[in-house]
Write a sequence for this structure.
């Protein structure tokens, strides 16, 4: 999996490219947690448009980061899910607690 | 008369996280011999990913072991059997309930997804001996839930 992280203002933007499972989730967790460390970074935007597959390990990694941004009084915004990824996130109840945006630009605009 | 097994694959692989993607992809390729939709193949991939992840994380507790994967085509049904010789599950019913987990990173969702996406799931487990998951999914609408 390719993981690209960039700080944009008070947000950390992470762009994922590849499948998010028990093998790749630890890298995502590590990069996200490092990027969220500075007190000035409050929000997390995760771009999922190039993620064709996600299982419960990926969901656990997202929910763990949701707890971190919530403690910082920030938001987690998910961008660009395909149908399969959206289904598992819906089933897990993730879409009830995080924000969803069509594009990275729209995600950043609401933060 | 019961349908016969018309095609079958058996493989085993090391309990390494890299092999989870291999297992689900190989299963999807095998399953595509039946008339599953793209959505159904995605569901099969997710179920196998969860089953193999369970074997690696809970069965072998991330230590070395072998995971076995058996795929059978029986009529219009795909049978998937994932087994390990790891720790086993003391209380299968408890483990299969939502949010019951010993691994906070996966939220206890593995069995939830398998039950939701497969037509049938049977779990056999013995502490100290290992766990076997028998899963079935059919293209026959009368079998599907």
């Amino acid at each position: 999996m390719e993981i690209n992280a960039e700080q944009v203002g008070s947000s950390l933007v992470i762009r994922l490219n590849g499948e998010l499972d028990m093998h790749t989730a630890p890298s995502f967790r590590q990069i996200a947690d490092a990027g969220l460390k500075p007190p000035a970074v409050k929000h997390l935007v995760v771009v999922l448009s190039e993620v064709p597959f996600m299982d419960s390990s990926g969901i656990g990694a997202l929910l763990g980061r949701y707890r971190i941004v919530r403690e910082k009084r920030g938001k987690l915004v998910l961008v660009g899910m395909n149908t399969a990824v959206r289904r598992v996130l819906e089933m897990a109840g993730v879409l009830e607690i995080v924000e969803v945006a069509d594009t990275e630009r729209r995600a950043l605009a609401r933060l | 008369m019961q349908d016969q097994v018309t095609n079958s694959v058996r493989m085993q692989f090391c309990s390494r996280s890299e092999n989870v993607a291999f297992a689900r992809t190989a299963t999807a390729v095998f399953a595509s011999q039946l008339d599953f939709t793209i959505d159904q193949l995605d569901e099969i991939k997710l179920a196998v990913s969860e089953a193999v992840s369970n074997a690696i994380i809970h069965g072998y507790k991330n230590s070395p072991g072998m995971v076995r994967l058996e795929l059978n085509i029986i009529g219009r049904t795909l049978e998937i059997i994932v087994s390990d010789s790891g720790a086993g599950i003391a209380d299968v019913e408890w483990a299969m309930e939502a949010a019951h987990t010993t691994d906070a990173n996966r939220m206890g969702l593995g069995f939830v997804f398998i039950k939701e996406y497969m037509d049938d799931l049977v779990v056999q487990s013995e502490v100290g001996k290992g766990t076997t998951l028998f899963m079935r999914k059919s293209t026959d609408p009368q079998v599907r839930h």
User: Anything to note?
Assistant: The two ends of chain A are 27 Å apart (CA to CA). Chain A has a mean pLDDT of 96.
